[in-house]
Each structure stands twice: as C-alpha cells, then as structure tokens.
Amino acid sequence: MKIVKLLTLLFVLFLYATQSLAVVFFYRVDYRPFTRISANNPPGFNAWGTNDDLLRHVEGASLGGSNPTSPASEQSAFISTTSDLNQAISLGETITISGIEGLGRLPFYIYEIRPTDNFYSVERSFRYYEQQTGDTEIYNQMLAAFGDQREYAAYLHIPIAQIHRVIRYDYNAERNRYEVAQTVDNEDYVDAPTGPNPGPYPRIPASGPAAYLPPDILCTISLNNSSSMSRFFTRSLSEPVDYVTTMKNRKRCHIMMEEMSSISDLLLD
C-alpha cells in the first residue's frame, strides 16, 4: 500500500514538473509574411528605435509607423506581443485594410513566439510605476484603456529562433469572416524552457501620457467596414470625449499607421 502511495506521489510530482516546464507562447499580429520577417537584419522582429519609455510606447506616441523619419531615439524600443491569442486575432481583424484599389481585405499573420526575459508585462510595469510615482490616476486610466490587450512588450529584438509557428488568416467573403488559411512551423525554431521577465520594465517614465494633442494632428479609426481609405482616418473632435476614449483612438491610429508602413513595403515589392 505504501509503495502504491509513493508511486502515486511521484507520478503527481512528475506531472507538476512537466507542466511547470511547458513553454508558454505569446502572439504578435503582423501583415508581413514569414519570408519578410526572416529577411530582416537581424532576422526576426526588430524595434523601430531605442526609446524605452514604455508609457509612450503603449499610448502610441513612439510607434515608428507614425513618423518613420524620426530619429531612433524618439521611436519605440519595444515590440508588442500579447499573451492572449484572441486579442491578437481581434486586432488583426480590426485594423485590416479593405477596399484599396480592389485589393480587398488583406491577409494577416499571427506569430506564435517563445518569450524570454526581455519580454515585460505592461500591466505589471504600470502597477510598479504607479507605486513608485504615486500617479494612480494616470496608470489606472492607461490600464482601463489597454489592459484587455494583455500586452507584453519585448525590448529591442525577437530572434527568429523564438518564432514557433506562423498562422495565416485569409478573409472568407462568403462567410464574411477571417479564417485560418495556413499554419507553418518555423524550421529554425529552438525549443527552450524560457518565459517572460517576472518583474516590471525598470525604467520609470519621466512624465505622464501626452493624451491631449492639438486636434489637427489627432486621428481616429472607424472600426466599421469601409469602402475607401478616407473613411478610416478622420479628424478628432475639437475636444476629446474622455481620456480613455481618446487614448484608445490614438493608439489605434498609430497602430494603423505602423501597419500601413509594412503594407506599403509589401506593395512595393
């Protein structure tokens, strides 16, 4: 009887150890196929610049697509990923461009990525900044706006060896939805028992978010299906409805502009 109990205990411990070593994958939506990502220098995902102000990254102020000609010091040092696959898919569906000279809805790609210690939880970082600075209102508002994205920001680079697989989504016009079209495993993927950094990103932002920019440079994105590009970009009202709504619209605007940069590259190939 004691032997049976001992074997049962060992089996349970084995299962627990196996589960604890299991790799947890994060996800990134992108409009570039794997061939483009692997052709980067260095191969993989690279940040737009060296600005490691996480607050500016999350609100969209330092995303490279908003102004690709800005110096590297002004562009984000982070690469956005999420721990929630559904969030990645939803983002891909939301900002996909339709109706560009008959191109229709473009495909998007979900990259399954093995995180390492240069991946930082935005929520954990913001909670830490809140404690250190006392700016409770700022960080609570930011998390209210973006917390559901479950974002993990990767610092500077995601090597090609950390991309596990790529899932392509194509639009099915008959069913009026995006569907999985292809799943490709990365032959260069290296398996390893790694995970995200358990702590916050250490640099505390110097100031609060720059939410209220002049209305002539703010833009929002219509989340409805549009037949032309002009309906995706609209000028903001003279006064924002509220802080959270403004921040969401601003972040979406910059995400769209960043993706437009990669889409333009594809069309020029």
Automatic annotation (TrEMBL):
SUPFAM superfamilies: ADP-ribosylation (SSF56399). One of its GO terms (molecular function) is NAD+ poly-ADP-ribosyltransferase activity. InterPro entries: Borpert_toxA. One of its GO terms (cellular component) is extracellular region. This is Pertussis toxin subunit 1. Gene3D superfamilies: Heat-Labile Enterotoxin, subunit A.
